[in-house]
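Write out this protein's structure.
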Amino acid sequence: MKEQLINVVDVIRNAYQHVDSRLSNHGERVAYILMKMLEDSPEFSPQDKQDIFMLGLLHDVGAYKKEEIDAMLSFDLGKTMEHSIFGYLLFQRFSPLPDYGDVILYHHNYNAQYYSVPIDEYHRKLARFIHLADRIDIFCLSHKTEELPAFLYKNQHQLFSIDDILWFLQSDETHHILDRLLSGAYKKDLTYYTSHSLLLSGEQLHDYLLMFIYSIDFRNSLTATHTSYAVHLSKKIAQMLRLTSTSCKIVELSALLHNIGKISLPSQLQTMDDYDIYLKRLNEYATLEITHDILSEAVDTQILQIIDQSFQLIHCWANNSKVTFSPSPAVEIVSMSYLISNAITLDSDIGANHCDELLPYLKEKYRLCGQDPSTLLAVEKHYSNILLETTAATETIQGIYRNMKNDNHSLNMILTHYNKKYL
């Protein structure tokens, strides 16, 4: 088995291409610009450079609405910051760099004074760097690269620091940043960097991935709750079955990545009917091809196999068709977790009814599909405790969602007031 089960940078790079075609490669290009600008600088440690690279890659993690992306791709600063607020909240609560959330908040206006969130001079400098790299990439998407210096100098007082402009231009002369962005050769540099220089612990990988998944799921309370239940259920069941620590981690990652293709689906779910349609699209393989596109070559093959076979197993259960393969316990765990999670999300009465209804339902599905019930019978012995522990853990996520929603509203009210008064 590979030492690392997942290349989280490649997962994020691949997934961004399915948010909006106009954002394709934007995060990785910004990260690349920052990486090359800082490459020869003794001012920043290798850890600093790694953190700034990840900040650049994920600086737009809060963007998912079309109107926000429209604004980001313009140069109207009065309309480009709503996604920065959501990104700040995601970084603060889920990322390995919670103290750097303010960098994301201020990255479109690094001199802002209107937020109630304090920011020190070092973090303002990082926000300034990200802003410069972001605007360079956006400019070069619609203009000739040779026009860039004139644009930067023209805006040296309003948008950019003259020192940063000179720093970038010197870095470009040394490393041919713009030429490699234009030709696409920068991708090879990124691949080398992420393979040989980017050192992330297992916990950091998990947290970056979790933050990215929640950037999709925290669009509304239904999807946030669903993912939380599925992941916690998978983790608890795997532990209860005494799988090895590596197998438990594979199960957890498989549950977390199971429906990452949902990034391509509409995010506005207003009613339970909307959510029911959303789930049906997921369960009918609507996003499986996109999930493959995102994960292939970026995760251990075992994870992709578990995801594939869990989709097949859920399909068999839905149609009462014979299971023509021998699903591993990991596949059964992920499949059961998603089925139970769907039921819990659609019915907020998390009580004895789930014990009374879901287990007999699953037993019948196992019988009709000709499936060995050994794993299910082992789960049955501990089902009530698993459900209670999962519910308690998920309540924390629900609390975070509510707090984020309130904080997002408050900060956007401040931003709206400022824009109306001054812009």
